[in-house]
Specification:
Blueprint (H helix, E strand, L loop, with lengths): L4 E5 H17 L3 E5 L7 H9 L5 E3 L2 H6 L7 E3 L8 H7 L2 E4 L2 H14 L3 E6 L11 H12 L4 E7 L12 H18 L5 E3 L6 H5 L9 E4 L1 H5 L17 E14 L22 E7 L11 E3 L5 E5 L4 E4 L12 E6 L1 H9 L4 E5 L1
Parallel strand pairs: 1-16, 2-3, 2-9, 3-4, 4-5, 5-6, 6-7, 7-8
Antiparallel strand pairs: 1-10, 10-11, 10-15, 11-14, 12-15, 13-14
Bound molecules: pyridoxal-5'-phosphate.
The site of pyridoxal-5'-phosphate (PLP) has 14 residues, from strand 9 and helix 9.
Length: 354
């Protein structure tokens, strides 16, 4: 194996998707499986589909292009750039939208390319990322209905991501109300009322999802096995489908305090270090180019993170349970941001087991 490596247990991803498929089915909810945290790796998309997902979603059109061989509906999560309208219509069946200018561009592209493009209007419910204000949603829906080449498929919202606002019965009920208002105003049926991401799973799991929410967009809960509002784990979910593994290139006893005049490190910051005396320090061959080092956790309890520069990650292995040597490897768990970074880094070798 070449290091650093992101080791992916495919079978665990299949099982996570199965568990979530059953949970959502019981709650009367459909979902699309979100591949953006793993750069739409086709093996992972395949695991999602094997586990019961019936559609795929990603925030980047490049990633949906990577998935074009899979014969399932594809949804673009990030509201499109007007300049990419042609590709969006070509490679996404549905996109999330909140801007009239962009909807016009999508309509023109759809007509030109002879396609019908699905639209979900995003409604702002307090997290303050994308979405039209509540009082403008009905109007934007009406104008969207008049655009040729587009099909208004529903409304949606996104919470948890920027403001950290969690989805609950109150804010998601507002989304259902908007959907019903749009249906009444224009005498149509909306197929999709999309109530958020992995942070909404707890409502489905506890039977508290407001009636009318029939769709979620799920990434993290499938990949890392936890819902994201309360970090709860549900039966059948694995939190260890991904392992980050790096190799020790130096192992020496050194003081914990730098020696000499301390100004700034490679990232322009002044390091704050506590004096803990002499420690056995291991350098593993990876760094900030590959990983967000404060979002990884050594699997072995006795190993502590000290810090990282671009290509070196320093560990305190004074109290490691096993004696270590240069050439040994160290395993880490990854939080979401670290998984994104490891997936994005070309230097991290992706290795599938199972
Ligand atoms: C990333 C994203 C999701 C999926 O979020 P997870 O927390 O990974 O489930 C859903 N919807 C939108 C709009 C997103 O950007």
């Amino acid at each position: 194996m070449r290091y650093p490596a992101l080791i992916i247990d495919r079978q665990k991803l299949v099982e996570n998707t199965q568990a979530i498929t059953w949970l959502c089915r019981d709650a009367g909810i459909g979902f699309c499986a979100v591949t953006k945290a793993v750069c739409a790796h086709p093996e992972i998309a395949r695991a999602f589909l094997e586990g019961g997902a019936t559609s795929l979603a990603d925030s980047r059109i490049e990633n949906l292009i990577r998935l074009s061989a899979f014969p399932v509906p594809k949804l673009l999560l990030r509201i499109p750039m007007p300049s990419e309208a042609d590709d969006v219509v070509r490679f996404a069946d549905i996109s999330l939208n909140s801007e009239w200018t962009t909807l016009e561009r999508l309509s023109e592209a759809a007509v030109r390319l002879g396609r019908i493009h699905g639209v979900i209007l995003m409604v702002e419910l307090g997290d303050l990322r994308e979405g039209v204000p509540l009082d403008q949603a009905v109007d934007l829906a009406g104008r969207t209905l008049r655009l040729p080449g587009l099909k208004l498929q529903g409304v949606g919202t996104n919470l948890n991501c920027y403001g950290g606002v969690i989805p609950d019965e109150h804010n998601l009920s507002e989304l259902v109300v908007i959907a019903r208002q749009i249906e009444a105003a224009y005498r149509i049926r909306l197929e999709i009322v999309s109530g958020g991401n992995s942070g909404s799973v707890y409502l489905a799991a506890s039977g508290r999802m407001p009636a009318g929410i029939n769709h979620l967009r799920l990434g993290e809960v499938l990949l890392l096995g936890r819902e994201t509002s309360f970090r709860k784990q549900y039966p059948g979910l694995h939190t260890d489908a991904f392992t980050f593994r790096a190799e020790i290139i130096e192992l020496k006893w050194k003081p914990s305090l730098p020696i000499g005049q301390v100004r700034q490190n490679a990232f322009g910051r002044k390091p704050h270090v506590h004096d803990r005396g002499l420690m056995l320090r291991a350098i593993v061959a990876c760094g900030r180019q590959d990983i967000l080092y404060d979002l990884i956790t050594p699997r072995e309890r006795g190993i502590k993170l000290v810090g990282a520069s671009s290509d070196h990650l320093i560990l305190d292995v004074t109290h490691s349970e096993h004696p270590l040597a240069v050439g040994d490897t160290v395993d880490f768990s990854l939080a979401y941001g670290a998984l994104v970074a490891a997936s994005t880094s070309e230097y991290v070798h992706k290795v599938f087991v199972n």
